[in-house]
Amino acid sequence: MRVLAIHERSVPISRYQDPVLPSGGLTTSIVAIETDATRDGRTVVGYGFASIGRFAQGGLIRERFAPRLLAADPRDYTDGDGNLDPSRAWTVMMRGEKPGGHGERCVAVGTLDMALWDAAAKAGGLPLHRFLAESLGGRARPMPAVPVYAGGGYPYPQDDVARLGDEMRRLADLGYSRAKIKIGSAPLAQDVKRIDAAQRALPHGGALAVDAMNAYALDEALEAAAALSPLGLWWLEDVCDPLAFDELSAVAAAYPRPIAAGEALFSVAEAKLLDQHGGLRRDRDILLFDPAHCYGLPGYLRIVEALEASGWPRAAFWPHGGHLFTLHVAAALGLGGAEVNPLCFRPFGGLSDGAAPMGGRAAPPESAGIGFETRAELAALFRSLG
Ligand code: MG
Q1: Catalytic residue among 182, 293, 323, 328, which?
Q2: In the annotation, is 182 catalytic?
Q3: What is the distance in A from the centroid of ligand 1 to the CA of 341?
Q4: How far apart are CA 345 and CA 360, in angstroms?
Q5: Would you call 3 helix, strand, or coil by DSSP?
């Protein structure tokens, strides 16, 4: 199996269901990896995209990582049977890269890695979660459906609290009893009002997490922790700068309920530093590492294995991202659960068209690969790559 061509483009994305609302000019990269393999008479093409919530990685993909794959001998990225082996392809992409200096190259590699897994699973005729479970052997802990929550709840420029309540009711109508909203950009008193509105809008027995988007300085974080402690939140996420482990540790000492961290950490070395110095508690806290942020699945697996070895339960991992790739990864590895973005980051976030969670869980699609084609708007976008 040979990689014949890699197509890439940057596309705008919005945090809101209504893409007209200002969203900071966010972009992401989409890629298509064209191979010489065919399955059921069709050429196997793998699709992937970069982070949602950061920015596109086109320069790094075009100048460094895609050319290495295209120039490599196919024997360097295939297995003994000639099938595409994404783990070997990952090693090809990382040739010559020095340790450290993750910058955002980790996301560029993660983007291509997603498309490689899509292509490999399609060539094997399996949905990614089954393909992964076979590939990972004893490291897999397959589960048919994944606990999920809906991400969203960004601040609205007008009628914020009322519109947030509407959004939460819409999520509840779609079958989500658990959700996560953003805080940290407004005064704390306003955030407490947002939390109250969101909690009231979710179904009885639901759960609300809040994401401070790394906005707080230490004094602000401690003030927020004190105010939020009595509110019964599911978790408090991204409290301070991603690398301010001393500050996170101080917040953890003051906040008894679960804390979530790790979304903006990119390597196993950073994950170990979080574990050693972030003050997190293995009996309750949540690990958000995102496969697309940390050099793709090979990098993510290293993080899961390193933290499991230091005593973290696999149920603590709830990968950030909110899309089908992380749903497959969570299903194959038996993670705690996964984020889904049913209303924001269109067309990337959310389940297959027409799919809904049942009893708080969602199953990944059963079509071969990741199943991006089960989302009509997303399939059309990928096909536009040529
Ligand atoms: Mg976050």
Answers
A1: 182
A2: yes
A3: 12
A4: 21
A5: strand
CB 372 within 8 A of CB 382: yes
**Which of 162, 183, 197 lies closest to 228 in space, CA to CA?**
183
* CA 52 – CA 4 distance, rounded (Å): 27
Closest of 317, 303, 328 to residue 133, by C-alpha: 328
Amino acid 320 reads H
Tokens of 136: 């990972």
Helices (H), the chain: 58-60, 66-71, 86-93, 105-124, 128-136, 160-173, 188-201, 218-228, 245-254, 268-277, 296-309, 324-333, 376-383
Q: Which structural domains are found in the chain, ordered by start? A: 3-125 (3.30.390.10), 137-375 (3.20.20.120)
- The CA distance from 111 to 381, in Å, is 16
| pLDDT < 50 stretches in the chain | none
- Residue in 122, 129, 320, 323 annotated catalytic: 320
Tokens matching residue 320: 């950030």
C-alpha 329/C-alpha 227 separation (Å) is 35
Note the pLDDT tens digit of each residue in 12-48: 999 998 888 888 889 999 999 999 999 999 999 999 9
Å from CA of 208 to ligand 1 middle: 14
User: What is the identity of the amino acid at 101?
Assistant: G
pLDDT digits (tens, 9 = 90+) for 67-112: 999 999 999 999 999 999 999 999 999 999 999 989 889 999 999 9
Of the candidates 225, 310, 300, 313, which has an alpha carbon nearest to the alpha carbon of residue 268? 300
Ligand 1 centroid to Cα of residue 151, in Å, is 9
CA distance 32 to 383: 8
Measure 384 CA to ligand 1 centroid, in angstroms. 30
Ligand 1 centroid vs 150 CA: distance in angstroms? 12
Q: If you measure from the C-alpha of residue 320 to the centroid of ligand 1, how many angstroms do you get, rounded to a whole number?
A: 7
